[in-house]
Write a structure and sequence with these properties.
- By secondary structure, the protein is of the alpha/beta class.
- The chain has one domain (about 5-315): TIM Barrel (Alpha-Beta Barrel), CATH 3.20.20.
- It has 18 helices and ten strands.
- The longest helix has 17 residues, at about 260-275.
- It starts with a helix and ends with a helix.
């Protein structure tokens, strides 16, 4: 008796929890079932995922820690690092590079590796040498997020007084000499796609150059992309990944100077579009840093209210404010995660505030620098979290 659902069905609930066929009495975690049923820990991202970085380097899976950067396709395909990662996967071992997927799967969450496997066999039928490309088309962005840097945001660069060379991701892609018909998936990241003329040029004017089946667009939700229907009407599946790193005032600190009310209005606009186009899906992404760990429950509540899956990513940079650090804010956040009634949110408690040394002085210094650059103060945005305000007062920020 053969049942295709055993190997080819994934049920994803509203909180990002993944299981097998819902008719099973005890549907196991997809990630756990995947890793234990296969002789080797396959990851298609190693050989089928290409990331283009500004300025003019390429890399493999952007979940690798640290990110990889190569100058040519040959360097990427034949690198010692990828060879070592492939060998580790064959032996059912997570290499240190893959710590983020390891933490997700050990926490019972669907990892980036497991997520991509649901498309792998389908894309192989189209092209055995298919590519999924993560593309920074430029660095035009209207936000200055604390965890960002001048190389990724034009506003951040302006505030920091840094001159960043102009970057054209489409031109970079064309210069690599690869057969563009190999590209079946595109991940469009920033800068900010909603304000980029290059993104519209790529997905409207140049779209026939590829064999596009699916496009993921990562946006901060500050503006609407009114050209999206032209892509949807071609039959391309579009995953709209709406990023928000907190709700209410915490959002306005993390995504300064974007206003929460404007963000909600634009999310509602996209939801109306989703009703019209069944090939449009929406999900939310939250980057967890020291500045917002304690707000994860309200992030989850917002995603559920808007009928969108929530995907939380534990930030690994910048070094002084990432969630692995052990400081006053991450310890408050860890306690909030531990008492969360939401299983998905609670599963991240073991991944934060895990470093041995207390880096609170470095956190405060980084916060003062970020706030001075943006002419704001972190505590002014924390009125809904008196515990945070009280704990941070002693540092006179």
């Amino acid at each position: 008796m053969w049942c295709p659902r055993l190997d080819h069905f994934a049920n994803i609930d509203n909180h990002g929890k993944v299981s097998r066929c819902p008719n099973m009495t005890y549907p196991d975690s997809y990630s756990k079932l995947y890793t234990t049923r296969n002789k080797s820990m396959r990851c298609s991202l190693v050989d089928h995922y290409l990331k283009l970085n500004a300025p003019n380097t390429i890399g493999s899976c952007h979940y690798l820690v640290p990110h990889s950067r190569f100058n040519t396709i040959d360097e990427w395909q034949n690198s010692e690092r990828l060879a070592r990662i492939r060998e580790s996967h064959k032996n059912d071992i997570f290499p240190p590079d893959c710590i983020r997927c390891k933490q997700d799967e050990e926490g019972g969450r669907v990892s980036r590796r497991a997520w991509q496997e649901q498309y792998h066999e389908e894309w192989l039928k189209i092209r055995e040498d298919y590519l999924r490309v993560n593309l920074e088309l430029d660095v035009e962005c209207n936000a200055a997020c604390p965890f960002c840097d001048p190389a990724l945001s034009s506003l951040f660069a302006k505030l920091a007084g840094v001159t960043v060379p102009k970057y054209d991701g489409l031109k970079h892609l064309m210069s690599l000499g690869i057969d563009l018909k190999r590209i079946v998936e595109l991940d469009i990241v920033g800068g900010e796609p909603s304000i980029s003329k290059n993104v519209e040029r790529l997905l409207v004017d140049e779209v026939d150059r590829f064999t596009l089946q699916r496009v993921r667009v990562f946006t901060n939700g500050s503006k609407v992309m009114r050209w999206l229907p032209s892509l949807l009407e071609r039959g391309v599946a579009v995953d709209l990944m709406v990023s928000y790193d907190g709700t209410g005032r915490i959002f306005e600190y993390s995504r300064w100077p974007i206003k929460w009310s404007k963000f909600i209005k634009n999310v509602d606009f996209y939801q109306d579009m989703r009703e019209k186009y069944p090939n449009l899906t929406m999900a939310t992404g939250t980057t967890m840093t020291a500045f917002n760990i304690f707000d994860m429950d309200t992030c989850s509540d917002f995603a559920k209210a808007k009928d969108m899956e929530l995907r939380i990513v534990v930030s690994s940079r910048p070094k002084d404010i990432h969630a692995f650090c052990n400081n006053t804010l991450t310890r408050i956040g860890k306690a909030a995660l531990e008492r969360s009634p939401n299983e998905y949110v609670r599963s991240f408690a073991g991944s934060v505030a895990i470093e041995k040394e207390d880096n609170t002085p470095q956190l405060i210094a980084a916060m003062r620098g970020i706030d001075a650059m943006r002419s704001i103060n972190f505590l002014d945005y924390c009125e809904d979290y008196p515990e945070v305000v009280e704990a941070m007062k002693i540092y006179q920020i």
